[in-house]
Amino acid sequence: MNRFVKKNIWLFSFLGVALVAALILAYMVTIAHTGMKKYIKETEDLRNEIKTLIGKKPAPVAGNLDRIRNDIRRYKVKVKDIRNSFGHPYRIALTKFADTMGIKLDEFENRFNAFWEINKKSGTTRDQVYRMFKASFKGYDKWDQAMREFTIEARKISLENIDENNVDEIFLGTLGLSRNLSFSTVKCDSFMRSIRFKLIDIFGEKQVGLGSNVSYFSFDFQTLADKNSIPDIVKTWDIIADLARRIANSRIYQLDSFEKSSIVGRKDGNYTYYRFKISVSGNLDSVRRLIKLLYDAYEDNRVYIIRGISISKKEDLAQKIIDDSDLLKNEAVRFDAITNSAQGIQSGAPDASGLHPQPENAKKTSAAKREEDPEKGIPFNERTGYGVPLIGKDKLCNATLDIDYVVYSAEELN
């Protein structure tokens, strides 16, 4: 009996321990399952979020990568077109040339640049390389016609007399070779004087005045230029010719001053800034028109940035009124002093009205003043001059502008 009981006790003890262990394992499994469900739900939420993001933005998959690369190529072309707007006005004429030749402009420029790089160090002159390039170009029979089209377009934006004597140099300048006028100081002087006289004629036609010495446009015509500065002088006069024409077309009253900071400009990366400071006289409408003409210059592949502007009235009527008011106050004080002094020396007792009798000459003066005022008794709002503005009716003003002309050039051929 005792042995049987002992065996049952061991059996129940073992079963109890097993039951406890099973309960503990079940509890742990439940907790692990709950955690698994939580992680599964979070994973599903992340997948849904990823699907939403993919729906909002192009996913970097093969198809979208192709589209992105295509967009990059197109943006590069667009950026180049935008950069060509910075100081390349003859590019319009060059495009006409390429169209006549039956070639894309970019391809033509690339072929010319490659040819120039190969042949510029061979000891030949610029003109010789140019003639060699023309001779080697397929479609040379169209060249003369294409150059005529270039000349027609170039004349629309230039004050020079463009003909067979200078069109090739202008053409090469458009392709990136700085114009040097054969480094002839005499040619440079003739070039500057020709443009200056034409600008003076334009200002005369537009009936816009020129201040003292403004017609020289901040250049010294007494001495010949340094031949090494000729390329920079030609560039600067091209800018001056365009800027001055826009000033004249704004129909201001007068260009009071015109200053340039330098003929070489200030470089910042691939951009060069040419600073000018001008002062003009005119009404507010003509100043606004000038600003608009400068901003709209991008349509002609020219970019002007107005860095600063100050405007002041020609005549400050408000100050004049203040000054006149002070004068009237001083006159009133002086008149009161004279009147009080006269009353102090007059004799006799007050009359029936309680006032001292006025001298006879004072009565005559008062009567004369009444006769001189023909509108006496008329309501003030019906009198002559009522409602006429005293301030702001005259819009004549002076304006001073600091202007940057911007040129983009990744590199120039030499």
Structure, explained:
The protein has 414 residues and is α+β, with helices and mostly antiparallel strands. Among the domains are: 13-50; 85-177, no CATH class; 186-319 and 394-414, Ribosomal protein S6/Translation elongation factor EF1B (Alpha-Beta Plaits, 2-Layer Sandwich). Helix content is 56%, strand content 12%. It has twelve helices and six strands. It has helices at residues 2-56, 62-83, 91-101, 105-119, 126-136, 143-155, 167-174, 185-205, 230-249, 284-295, 317-345, 360-372, and strands at residues 209-210, 254-260, 266-268, 271-283, 303-313, 396-408. Strands 1, 2, 3, 4, 5 and 6 form a six-stranded mixed β-sheet that branches. A hairpin with a 2-residue loop joins strand 3 and strand 4 (271-283). The radius of gyration is 44 Å and the shape is flat. The model is unreliable at 345-356 (pLDDT under 50).
Number of E-type strands: 6
Average pLDDT reading = 80
Beta-strand share of residues: 5-15%
Q: If you compute it from the alpha carbons, what radius of gyration comes out, rounded to the nearest whole angstrom?
A: 44 Å
Q: Which fold does the CATH topology of the domain at 186-319 and 394-414 refer to?
A: Alpha-Beta Plaits
How do the helices and strands follow one another from N- to C-terminus? HHHHHHHHEHEEEHEHHE
Shape: flat
User: Residue ranges: pLDDT <50 for 5 or more in a row?
Assistant: 345-356
Q: How far do the termini sit from each other?
A: 122 Å
